[in-house]
Amino acid sequence: MRLPVSIAVLAAGALLSACATSGGGAPATPYTPTFSTERLSEDARILSDDSFEGRGIATPAEQKVVDYLSAQYAAAGFQPGGPNGQWTQDVTLNRFTASNIRAGFTAGGETIPLTQGEQIVISTRLPGDHVHLMNKPLVFVGYGIDAPERQWDDFKDVDVRGKVIVVLVNDADFEQPELNTFGGRAMTYYGRWTYKYEEAARQGAAGVIIVHETAPASYGWATVNNSWSGPQFDIVRANAAAERAPMEAWLQRHVAVDLFRRAGLDFEALKVAARSRDFRPVELTGVTFNGMFDVASTQVVTHNVLARLPGTTHPDETVLYTAHWDHIGVGSPDADGDAIFNGAVDNATGTAGLLELARAFGAGPRPERSIVFISFTAEESGLLGSEYYASNPVYPLATTVGGFNIDSMNVYGRVNRYGITGYGQSDLDERIGAVVESQGRTLQPDANPASGGYFRSDHFPLAKRGVPMTYGGSTGDFRDEPIAERQATRSEYGRSRYHQANDEWSPNWDLRGQVEDLQVLYTVGSALANSREWPQWKDGSEFGPARAPTADQRR
Question: Could you please report the per-residue DSSP string of 229-271?
């Protein structure tokens, strides 16, 4: 299907006209931006080309990405937005490469070997030369959660220091949402793999093994293998040993079931028991873990790319647009021999979306507040670029009005709904909903809250520090034929292409739905940039308290 060169965004009342005001406050001529499907496609094509080698961080390909993005932002009329008038913010990371991995379980005098990538995936984010875990006791700690505010403690008074803990992915409500201990099927941060690893380190465990199950993880084993079998990264920490366990691993479910059986335990029965506050850790008697691997630890510098359009009257107040530029890079060849993980949808599309939004703002009236675009690095390594920025903001978080994160945009055509991941957190929901409805679409709360999407993209490090951030995009039913073909293609991506080498650009993409989403983000952001309004967290949001102490700076 060939697409038109561009699709003009139609005005729909004051919301869609993105009216600017002159310096004296008088209404100016409404500005209606035009978003080009051809430009969006071309930017995504270039960024996901084999020559960009999967956009791996701290590789020669990174400079190509930085050069391309900074040139496009400059052409759109933006200034360098990084420290000291640069286009980039340095992000210093530790890189860990595990090699010579030998692992296995011992049960009843029998050794059960484990092969990296097949039964287990082992990694580390702790500086050192090697990890040597021999005859380590295994303790099943349910979901591995310690949440005092929910009266939940999977560890109780059991000392797991120096042991290897085995944990379930997600949280108890995924299997039994009526418990409502963790908000039903809407995953909390406690369900994320990042939390599991962090809590294991706080408990002093020598290692942590997450049992992989596709439904509660929301992705298959291939994604686990591709994401954790290569080099791992972390921000530089003052006391890494207190925040990182020596071994971080995932284990195939069927291996865990057999392991529990050898210890005289029923995996499924213990899964049920783990849903209760009364659950206590269970040692896998007679079973131990052995793991040895070398670690190459190096320090690397990668880069966030920042572009800024200064505001006319309130330049110290900032509206953010964010998306990550990185992907997995080069990995193991797939069945077709392809080793380059191009990341066309994830997230060349979101990066292209940022560039097109920058062109829209650059071509229109200058807003009253500043607009800042951040192309984050190291999202695929655990949101590290955004975590670094949130810890070292170039623009004060207290006067950051709010922001819009873009990750993996719609390439399948126009749909009838716009979904907000983490719906119910802030009044950005209502601001977005009004624009979506003016397009003839409806707003849909988080379509899959069990996947924990709100904790899996670059808005989260900013949100947890109090900045109102939203993350959403196209969802629902297709509006144009061939509907069945579009549905099949969309489903096939999640099933077979996400974090795979075949996430490739296609000339057959239909980006008209992507344009509608960009229209929403432009309109809401432009309205905020030309107002004195500050988005608010809703009552009950865990992020509101982080914003409250700086309220006097937003008067």
Answer: SS-EEEE--TTHHHH--SEEEEEEHHHHHHHHHHTT--HHHHH
Sequence spans of domains, the chain? 7-92+301-548, 95-297
CA distance linking residue 64 with residue 77, whole number of Å = 20
Residue 358, Cβ density class (10 Å: 0-12 exposed, 13-18 middle, ≥19 buried): buried
CATH topology of domain 95-297: Glucose Oxidase; domain 1 (3.50.30)
412: DSSP letter: B
- CATH code: domain 7-92+301-548 is 3.40.630.10
Q: Say if CB 234 and CB 378 are below 8 A apart.
A: no
Give the DSSP H or E segment for 298: strand 282-309
**What angle do the packed helices 37-47 and 350-363 form, to 10 degrees?**
130
The angle at the Cα of 408, spanning 402 to 413, to the nearest 5 degrees, equals 110
Alpha helices of 410-509 — where are they, by DSSP H?
428-438, 459-463, 483-492
Q: Give the residue among 392, 405, 363 at the shortest CA–CA distance from 521.
A: 405
CA distances 94 to 63, 124, 231, 478, Å, are: 19, 11, 10, 44
Q: Please answer whether residues 358 and 72 qualify as being in contact, where contact means their C-beta atoms are separated by less than 8 angstroms.
A: yes
What does the block give as tokens for 391?
């810890």
Cis peptide bond upstream of 177, omega within 30: no
Q: Write out the chain's pLDDT in tens, 555 residues.
A: 333 333 333 333 334 444 433 333 334 457 889 999 999 999 999 999 999 999 999 999 999 999 999 999 999 999 999 999 999 999 999 999 999 999 999 998 899 999 999 999 999 999 999 999 999 999 999 999 999 888 999 999 999 999 999 999 999 999 999 999 988 887 878 998 989 999 999 999 999 999 999 999 989 999 999 889 888 989 888 899 999 999 999 999 999 999 999 999 999 999 999 999 999 999 999 999 999 999 999 999 999 999 999 999 999 999 999 999 999 999 889 889 999 999 999 999 999 999 999 999 999 999 999 999 999 999 998 899 999 999 899 999 999 999 999 999 999 999 999 999 989 999 999 999 999 999 999 999 987 777 777 888 899 999 999 999 999 999 999 999 999 999 999 999 988 899 999 999 999 999 999 999 999 999 999 999 999 999 999 987 878 989 999 999 998
CA distance 313 to 478: 42
Q: β-strands 110-114, 88-107: how paired?
A: antiparallel
- Residues 191 and 199: their CA atoms lie apart, in Å, by 11
Q: How far is CA 71 from CA 77, 307, 319, 379, in A?
A: 10, 10, 21, 22
